[in-house]
Write a structure and sequence with these properties.
- The chain is α/β, with parallel strands linked by helices.
- The chain contains 7 helices and 9 strands; from the N terminus they run ααβαβαβαβαβββαββ.
- The strands form 2 sheets. The chain has a 7-stranded mixed sheet with strand order 3-2-1-4-5-9-8, with helices on both faces. A two-stranded antiparallel sheet has the order 6-7.
- The N and C termini lie far apart (41 Å).
Length: 201
């Protein structure tokens, strides 16, 4: 089980095949809403099986997919290889050690469905801040703080346990404690929001 991996963030296991596709049939629209643009150097942090990594690769100059679970990372590698994407590197590692996992600063760091499980969120925010290029941004896509029984996908409650979910205000406070400042807050239907940060002055 992936959650038994030392350092694996609580409540962030990949879902059963099929329901992420049902939740987000157009992942490229999620990326566009959070501000990913052509020409960027991007990190897909806690990338899982690459559901967002592939559409990122189709837009940007280069993407680094990072996950602590080598099996999930291999699934992401296969997904991109089967689609012919060649502008992606895959790195197994701990998100807290982000700066040591990449060779150059990122214009954009994307993280979906994982921030709620991070034990020390300001520490992660500091790691992200140290990895961003000047003017770079960090997008956190989180489940809204709604009861799990109300977030239905394919007829069943989905997502992390209710008590793990973070409000936008909680996410913003944690990121700002790590030296980031809010740049944008967007809705990511049907059940998520995207909080986008930049380096504080």
């Amino acid at each position: 089980m992936t959650s038994a991996i030392p350092g694996f963030f609580q409540g962030t296991e990949m879902p059963n095949s099929g329901w992420w596709e049902a939740l987000w049939p157009d992942p490229a629209a999620v990326l566009s809403a959070t501000g990913i643009k052509p020409g960027m150097e991007v990190i897909d942090l806690c990338c899982g099986d690459g559901w967002f990594t592939l559409p990122i690769a189709r837009v940007v100059r280069h993407v680094v997919a990072i996950d602590i679970d080598a099996d999930l990372l291999e699934a992401a590698r296969r997904r991109l290889a089967e689609s012919g994407a060649t502008n992606c590197d895959f790195v197994a590692g701990d998100a807290y050690e982000l700066a040591s996992l990449v060779s150059r600063p990122a214009d954009f760091i994307f993280m979906a469905n994982a921030f709620h499980g991070v034990p020390d969120r300001p520490r992660l925010a500091r790691a992200v801040r140290a990895t961003l290029s000047p003017g770079g941004r960090f997008a956190i896509v989180n489940w809204h703080q709604r009861p799990r029984e109300t977030t239905i996908v394919q007829g069943e409650p989905r997502g992390p346990r209710t008590e793990l979910r973070l409000s936008p205000e909680q996410t913003i406070a944690a990121a700002e404690a790590g030296g980031l400042k809010l740049a944008d807050l967007v809705e990511v239907p049907p059940y998520h929001y995207g909080a986008v940060f930049e380096q504080a002055e």
